[in-house]
Amino acid sequence: MHVLEVNNVSYRYQRNQVLHDVTFTVTEGEIFGILGPNGSGKTTLLKLLSKELPLQSGSIVVNGRPLRSFSQKEWARFAAVLPQITDAAFGYTVKETVELGRYAHQNGLFPTWTEEDEQAVKTAIEEVGLTEKVEEGIDRLSGGERQRVYLARALAQQPRLLLLDEPTNHMDITQQIKLLDQLVRWAKEKALTIVAIFHDINIASLYCDRLLMLKRGEVVALGTPEELMEPERLNSVFQAQVSRQAHPTVSKPLMAFLRKWEFPILQHGGLRERFTWTTMKDCIAITASAPLKVLSSALIGSGFQWATHFVNRQVPKDYDCEDAETEMKHYLRRHGFPVQQTIGMMTAVSIEDAVCMYENGDAFSVWAVVTAGVGNAVDAAQAWKRAHFDQKIGTINIMVFIDGILTEAAYVQAIMTATEAKTKALYDEKIIDSETNTYATGTSTDCIAVAATQTGVTFPYAGTITPLGKAIGRTVYEATKKALRRYQQRRESS
Ligand SMILES: Nc1ncnc2c1ncn2[C@@H]1O[C@H](COP(=O)(O)OP(=O)(O)OP(=O)(O)O)[C@@H](O)[C@H]1O
């Protein structure tokens, strides 16, 4: 059911037309966000919806009735408004301010304060988390706390429709999230309809069911966050460069703002010259002079990360730790590595046998660093036949460093290309899965990291058809093959 139907609403302040033919509907229990740059008409639209401004043209229908047919009192029972700027009502306490919200429910010439009124005020104050400040003068509260008092006043009205102008203005991030989670709960549990103006597009995307985007008083987009959050659209509406990312846990887009001006990263020399290589007693550490964007399956720094340190740590053959991640973090800290900017892998293979391969293309350079052991060699196509894996020495750790800008697709393709090259090296070295007696495709605990400088030339792809993919394939293949031979030699000589 539509709680709000807005049809061709236009509005002008004197000769300044600020809204043009705005049309949309809002359904019951929906959280409906209004977004747009400063001066695009958001507050004016909300003021028209809240009856603060008279309608000049078009129509607004609420619950099937024209908005103008609601008396002030009827309207106050139906809708509560949290305006953008609210002056502190000096002299009032928190409780007294929230009690004003019950005005709409008072009847007769000499209204009486009922138990229901008392309860509604108490609940509203509890819901915004201000019970402890109930007798405090609101002029003694912080901006964020005061905002919560006004929200409690709106809630005490027990409205069916909440109209909010930047509801989380002045709030710290904890309070914002708390309040917005609460709004979602009210919307879903109490079928409360919420129309709110947001400035933060990521907050709006995360919490709103649908969004309306205004630009110079016109609707430029209307739909779900998934539909609307397109970099080109946001670029044209907000004049800001953005890139769309996936939220880690919710099926909502996250927009990352791109800085217009970047410090030019001065890169001297080839790719390898930008790293220092340190061989310590039990690890290899590669340190970059500037952070690289990395996609990895590493124990530390998995997924996409920016990193300056790449550590391949040799652990004893019988290393057995229930919480290897925490233990590895302690190890990194103990050795002075910045954990948040480190990609950390483990291996039981001798790190002295690490192999590096380098290729310098016309527009890029690729550097592959591989340690390999095959005690745990396995044929991926047959792995399902094994009930459990014995852990022996042998895992293949691959690090690929690339000078260039990689798209996310290119990162994934680089991982595919490197994996295929590794598998081919295993095949050519005739490495067998000892359980199934078939060719091994990898080991049971292989690890990979693809790191790119994100400067220079852009590579949209890194499959084997591209020059970059060819270089990745060759360097990883050669390095893996050589590392496998060194591993075999060490085994034969011991
Ligand atoms: N009372 C007023 N008299 C004249 N012009 C006004 C008045 N209120 C707003 N305007 C103008 O109307 C336009 C839209 O203002 P509005 O406050 O609706 O925008 P907004 O999108 O809410 O902006 P913001 O993000 O800055 O809050 C602006 O150009 C503003 O200057």
UniProtKB/TrEMBL annotation:
Superkingdom of the source species: Bacteria
Domain (ABC transporter) ranges: 4-241
Key words, A-Z: ATP-binding, Nucleotide-binding, Translocase, Transport
Family annotation (Pfam families): ABC_tran (PF00005), CbiZ (PF01955)
One function term, GO molecular function aspect: ATP binding
Name of the protein: Iron complex transport system ATP-binding protein
